[in-house]
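Hi support team,

I'm filing this because I wasn't sure whether my run with zinc ion finished correctly. The job status page said complete, but I'd like someone to confirm that the output block is well-formed before I use it downstream. Pasting the exact inputs I used:
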Amino acid sequence: MGYNLRDRKLLNSRGTYFGSSGSDDESYDSDPDFGTPARRPRTRRSMPRAAGIRIPGSGGENSSGNLTGNMERMWSGLHPRTSEHRRRLIEINRRRKRTFSRVPDVAITKRTVLSWLISMGVVSENEEVWYLDAPWGNILGEGKVTREGIVCMCCSRLVTVGEFEAHAGWKTNKPYQHIVLAESLLSLFDCQIEAWEEKEEEERRKFNHIQPAPKAVDTSDDACMICADGGDLICCDTCPSTFHPKCIFMENLPQGDWLCFYCVCKYCGTARGILNKCSQCDKLYHCKCGGEKLDLMNRASTLFCGKTCKKIYERLERMVGVRNDLEDGLSWTHFQRRGQPWTASCENDEYTRVECNSKIAVAWQVMNECFLSTMDRHTRANIVQSIVYNCGSNFTRINYSGFYTAVLEKGDEMISAASIRVHGKMLAEMPFIGTRGRYRRQGMARVLQNCIESFLCSLKIETLVIPAMDQLTGMWIDKYFFARVEDENLKQALSGYNVVMFPADVVKLHKTLSMRPDLNQAPPEDNED
Ligand SMILES: [Zn+2]
Ligand SMILES: [Zn+2]
Ligand SMILES: [Zn+2]
Ligand SMILES: [Zn+2]
Ligand SMILES: [Zn+2]
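And here is everything the job wrote out:
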């Protein structure tokens, strides 16, 4: 008996999707999570300055230079750098926090980690900060936190976090760990962790676990994985994915069970025996089918289907959080949300992890300004948000775990952000790229686009695909040299990948990547082939 196609009606009519890749789109959607009216901030009593704390330029009646006197008594018994200590500080800060309100998100003019901390209510605007050379050490600089940066007391100028450290005459690569709130002595690094642990941040990064309705007979998806439409679909017998036969170029319906391309070995197409999942391309494979000495190459935690995926993965990971400086004070970096450390990782890793997560939170605010909130019709997953936070799912088509976010910054300020995912040597996708309203029409998206293409080139990725709204298709073709996906061979090749799907009125464009020497920058990548 042959396979019976199942007619699946979509729950909602088409139109809940918002087409992407519109860097010039003018729509503005304020962050609904911060829509509550701000309470009037209560004037906070400033903390009496402890005797013995030396303030640069204050004359220095007491030059012992350490936290002594009241402050020391206050904090004695708290051993620095233990989780218990941090927990107590956070607890104190939480109580304190109730005395001031969050800043409404629409009032944010610059998107920085500081503005995120303020909008999350973890740091109050104009809060006094000190730069300490070591935990509980000397105060080397004084300033006030604003949404735009830190107002440095030594020069009364608005500076970045890194510049504030330089003005304090110190150099570490971890300024957030050395800048503390004068009132609570909680470091900005601790504040980053606290903001990340807030419930609304936690909500944004949750795994999209899609469960069928109770007593549901049919647990398959209602939308084709390739074209997002409903209708007569062939259902995978292992996972909930469904497809139009024509969308996967299937001419004859299979006899009996059928498994989709994410449920079989990518080499032999069967599902017998032990299958491993590649950490880079997310496809399953048999070790023996890989053709290379996969067992020798792979370690237990990260498995790869082959040498190419391993190389791509390692290069992407190595560059996470590494800032690439460009002209005019601009820089670009790619980030990815980092989970809890698996092992007792070193302090460096922890700093990078917290930095990545903070930048992802800021990138989400930028994306949320650029794109309307888009719900998946069937699963109700928030697509843009889940992509920025690289949320996984048991539904392949909304499994966004492999996404990275590339951002363009000027100083500490985030200007543009883009989502990129590499599926393997053949293909990368970029479903979203957006620039904040006040920076549009200044070529910012182009700078970021060039950096991304150049970086993908260095990874030797062959093709980049993007979805484009109809009215922007011309721009992508004329100015960025993309082309419509029309070639049947390419269409067929693309149908084997989990590319973010958009409704039919969004045009799929592609570009063959090649090294262009005139691009703005080349990332510091070695050539080790
Ligand atoms: Zn200064
Ligand atoms: Zn389809
Ligand atoms: Zn499947
Ligand atoms: Zn196989
Ligand atoms: Zn792979």
